Amino acid sequence: MYFGYLLREPLLIVYSAKAGLLDLEALTNFLATACPAITVVQFVAPAPLVYQAVIKPSGSSLPRLCYWAQAACNILGAAYAIQIGNGIVLGTNMFGLFFQIIYLVADHIIRNGNGRWLSFAVQIAAVLNTSLIISSLGSPVYFLGHGITACNIFLSAAPLGSVKMMLSSKKHSLSIGLTLLGLVSNALWTTFALVMTDLVLLFPSVLGFWLSIFQVLLLLWSNSLLPFDISVFLLLCGDTRETVLNEIVGKIDKQKTETSLAPTDCEMAIAG
Questions:
Q1: Predicted TM-score of the model (pTM)
Q2: Residues 6+ positions from 268 with CB-CB distance below 8 Å
Q3: Predicted pLDDT at 234
Q4: Residues 6+ apart with CB under 8 A from 78
Q5: 141-157 vs 199-222: helix axis angle to the nearest 10?
Q6: Average pLDDT, whole number, for the chain?
Q7: Quick check: 89 and 145 in contact, CB under 8 A?
Q8: Which has more pLDDT, 225 or 269?
Q9: Which of 44-53, 54-63, 147-156, 159-168 has the lowest mean pLDDT?
Q10: Do 132 and 101 touch, CB atoms closer than 8 A?
């Protein structure tokens, strides 16, 4: 119910536009510009961190699996755009594919040194572009749609790999900037998909929007900014009901203890 309620604003905007209360053409033009723009920012955002990892190796590798998943998503998205003739979606995905190649080459340099990185770049570019040609010529639209949805679910859920630790310790490893960027991006793409009545764009955007909301909840929870407890989500992480209840009760008892030990206004006045 709560996650469904969060879709109210995009639905109201689209309904108002299609009912004539808002300028539908102006809204479509705005979204056609804003959606690719914020997606381009998302593709470029990891570049400084990748650059630092290359020039100052710390022994830790880059999230190579996420780059491959994003590259696959870009290939499927570009193939879909070619089939329906959508230049905006095609350009955005080709730009993203270019940056995924760069990130994969950077990961290769970190793992293997500078040796043969150019050969690796040529090979990976050839493989990805061949996959794009095959996908755009021989893949049905419904297959592309399912593939895009699956890749987006993985990419949106990847930062939640340590959700159990975050819920238990209130310490997060999420990037605030990238999380908020993903939230805004998925909200815009959801609205654009509703305006265009494009289910292939809608499903992954809605799922990404919900997962981004959950990431924001984790950030707020980690900083004690939520008015309610979300420890119940530990049930989804494999914890038993008794363990979760004991943890919640323990937190409540701790808060009561801290409150009772805090000096009252009268005590502070007397002490002063």
A1: 0.73
A2: none
A3: 61
A4: 89, 90, 93, 94, 97, 132, 135, 136
A5: 10
A6: 78
A7: no
A8: 225
A9: 159-168
A10: no
Q: Which amino acid is at 18?
A: K
Residue 249 to residues 229, 239, 261: CA-CA distances in angstroms?
11, 15, 18
As to burial, measured by CB atoms within 10 angstroms (0-12 exposed, 13-18 middle, 19+ buried), residue 256 is: exposed
Residue 44 φ/ψ, nearest 5 degrees: -85, -25
CA 27, CA 8: separation in Å to the nearest integer? Answer: 17
Residues 9, 154, 62: CA angle, nearest 5 degrees: 120
User: Is the distance from CB of 230 to CB of 167 less than 8 angstroms?
Assistant: yes
User: 3-state SS string over 172-214?
Assistant: CCCCHHHHHHHHHHHHHHHHHHHHHCCHHHHHHHHHHHHHHHH
Q: Is the dihedral of CA 58, 60, 61, 63 positive or negative?
A: negative
Tokens representing 67? Answer: 């780059």
**Residue 190: both structure tokens together:** 């959801």
Question: How far, in Å, CA of 21 to CA of 67, rounded?
Answer: 42
Residue with tokens 């793409």: 189
Among 153, 107, 100, 108, CA closest to 131:
100
Residue that has been written with the tokens 């008015």 in this structure? 227
Q: Residue 102 burial (CB < 10 Å; 0-12/13-18/19+)?
A: middle
Residues composing the chain: 272
Question: CA–CA separation, 176 vs 216, rounded Å?
Answer: 8
Residue 194, phi then psi, degrees to nearest 5: -65, -40
